[in-house]
Amino acid sequence: MNSNQWHAANLLTASRLAAAPILLGLAWFNKPIAFLTLLAAVFFSDLLDGYVARRLKQTSSFGAQLDSWSDGVIYSTIAISTWWLWPDIVQDQVLYVWIVIGSFTLPTIIGISKFKTLTSYHTWSVKVAAAAMGLSLYPLFLFKISWPFHLAVFVCVLAAIEEIGMTVLMSEPHSNIGSIVRVFRERQSKSS
Q1: Per-residue CA distances from 184 to 38, 120, 171, 177 (Å)
Q2: Using CA of residue 116, residue 127, residue 94, residue 33, what is the dihedral sign?
Q3: How far apart are CA 188 and CA 192, in angstroms?
Q4: Residue 12: which domain range?
């Protein structure tokens, strides 16, 4: 890994990795408001790093992989931390929680099984799912309003189905695909 890879976009992505142990500490020491505040900053950096990478022409396969690893670490951190902070709410929503976990892990497992590497598609549907999930956590944990969380779970399932479909259709992994429509178009252009 060379020093040229540590530019603004990748530093933003790496900041999410650095935030994970802090989030865990806040959850362990029962600091829910501080946890949710830092989590909001983490979600914002997740939205910002891709924009910065495209805007500054800093996109790379390293950056895409780093983003995928950061997402996995943060999603795992959220699962553990919310269990510590709000065990009653998590238990009440346990079926939905398992569906979310499955929607994030199943496409990854299938991608690694097929390509022997972590896939980094960064589809629009996953971005929408992550935003919906992130936004839904605040009404759920602050006010015990669950319907936004249930809607976000549905969006996560749709995003997972798209990623699995992309893995099935592609012969080799590609980063930053956007959507399954692009995969279909590329397959059509190759067959023409």
Answers
A1: 39, 18, 12, 11
A2: positive
A3: 6
A4: 1-85
pTM over 0.70: yes
Number of domains present in the structure of the chain: 2
Torsions phi, psi for 156 (to 5 deg): -60, -40
Sequence letter at residue 133: M
Question: What are 31-64's pLDDT values in tens digits?
Answer: 999 999 999 999 999 888 878 888 888 888 888 8
- What are 102-117's pLDDT values in tens digits? 999 999 999 999 999 8
Q: Tokens for 106?
A: 């199943």
Sign of CA dihedral 163, 166, 170, 174: negative
Q: Are residues 145 and 90 in the same domain?
A: yes
Q: What is the 3-state secondary structure (H, E, C) of 90-101?
A: HHHCHHHHHHHH
Q: Which residues contact 42 (CB under 8 A, 6 or more apart)?
A: 16, 19, 23, 74
Which of the 8 DSSP states describes residue 178?
-
Cβ partners under 8 Å of residue 85, min gap 6 = 27, 30, 32, 35, 141
Judgement on whether residues 34 and 104 belong to the same structural domain of the protein: no
Q: What is the pLDDT of residue 40?
A: 96
170 residue type, one letter: M
